[in-house]
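Quick one, T. Sequence first:
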Amino acid sequence: MKTIIIPADQSNNFYNCLNFALMFEQTTPIDILILFENKKFENEYFQKFEEIVLNFQPAFINPESIIRFHITTGKIEDEICVLVNENKNSFFINTFAETNDAKKNGYTIENALKIMKCSAHNVVTLPTGKIPSSIKRIIFPIHHLSKVRHKVTLTAEIAKLFGADIYVLNANVSNQSTVIKQCGLYSRQVVNHFKSIGISSELYETEGKNLVELILSFSNEKSADLIPIIKERNSGGVFGRSYLQDMIINSTIPLLVIGPRKGRISASFKTSG
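Structure tokens:
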């Protein structure tokens, strides 16, 4: 069972998060944990939660799936990190595009970025507006900042879960021949690996000066449903932080922010990246 943690930030996009979570319930039982920010009157939370259950629990198709809630006792971003890190099978779905007024909603992009940095697990962040009805087209970006094996493993898992195609994008923004050669080699190896485990995959290449623009332009062209990106170990640096933040702010496509940890892949997949 997958535990999916969602903050109730009082925005319309909160319901997008719930609907996105239900997409996973089509293939595996899920445990939706809704976080409410601590306030004086708990009765309000019970009423809100009852409304959510009435609206969404009938949509469950797996009898093992459940929905529950938790009232925070401190800062919401701190408690999310604790809850996610306690459960290895959990991930966090958030949206923040409508929560610029911190006093009104209590959840901002700064909260989201803090959660991504402190969490050892994966975070799905959704844009404002519509979400895909399913995950059928995944854009897998490869570039000089991110050549991490665990992204291959998790992306393959999601692709198999939804029967999705994976478009591997070698996005070149470097003028160093060694980097260009390594990324090209890695891209071909990734495509071959996906194909070897029965996933439809194609390789595309693009080049330019702005990495985020290259990735998002191609993703929009392909009508992508999900873009997995790595939260680099050095994301505290200026460039790493800028790449992650720019992707989150500018993407109109759901992002899967993957924690940088080791994953197991078959012996047939070898790379120095």
